[in-house]
Automatic annotation (TrEMBL):
InterPro entries: PLAC_motif_containing. This is Transmembrane protein. Keywords: Membrane, Transmembrane, Transmembrane helix. It holds the Pfam family PLAC8. The chain crosses the membrane at residues 74-92, 98-117. NCBIfam families: A_thal_Cys_rich. It comes from Phytophthora cactorum. The lineage of its organism: Eukaryota, Sar, Stramenopiles, Oomycota, Peronosporomycetes. The keyword NADP does not apply. The keyword Hydrolase does not apply.
Length: 175
């Protein structure tokens, strides 16, 4: 038996309305709803800039995501994460128990912010999941989680390092 790939486009159909996936689709802005656009390790599809930026500058990517969805102004988020990173750097450079505590506090606050953003994205786009999953992904694989969120809301231009936010998408509200 030999595998024969489909020869015309009509031979390939994927039904996304099966079972509990009936709420899948795209919204008016072209953003996927009902599921994540990529998997947790989907940043490998777009290493530049998504994978690199999410690992090297996660605060910047979180600011771009927040601005893209209109959740918080870009420079406010950038200032918050910049302050946390500055405090963490100062804490690491000193050898004090108090500053060690501050370092871990900054790390936990950063992860909590990413967890909250992930929860809001899941709510906005009707993506199934739980708070426990959001916490686990944010604390254990924060860079991957940030990259997944950035891919989902299309907060970057593939192949281009951009440090400014993309345009805010219209029409999202949280109740």
């Amino acid at each position: 038996m030999q595998f024969e790939p489909p020869t015309k486009q009509a031979d390939v159909t994927v039904n996304i309305a099966d079972g509990d996936n009936s709420n899948q689709g795209v919204d008016s802005n072209g953003i996927v709803t009902g599921r994540w656009k990529t998997g947790l390790f989907g940043f490998t599809d777009s290493i530049v800039p998504n994978g690199v930026m999410s690992c090297c500058c996660p605060g910047l990517v979180v600011a771009q995501i927040s601005a893209r969805l209109g959740l918080m102004p870009f420079y406010h988020v950038l200032g918050i994460f910049g302050g946390l990173y500055l405090l963490a750097i100062i804490s690491v450079s000193t050898h004090s128990g108090f500053f060690d505590f501050l370092f871990w506090l900054c790390a936990v606050i950063s992860a909590l912010c990413m967890m909250r953003l992930r929860w809001r994205i899941r709510t906005l786009f009707s993506i199934p999941g739980s708070h426990a999953q959001d916490a686990a992904f944010s604390f254990c694989c924060g860079c991957c989680s940030v990259a997944q969120m950035a891919s989902h809301v299309e907060s970057y231009e593939p192949g281009t390092f951009a440090f400014a936010p993309r345009a805010t998408l219209p029409g999202y509200s949280l109740s």
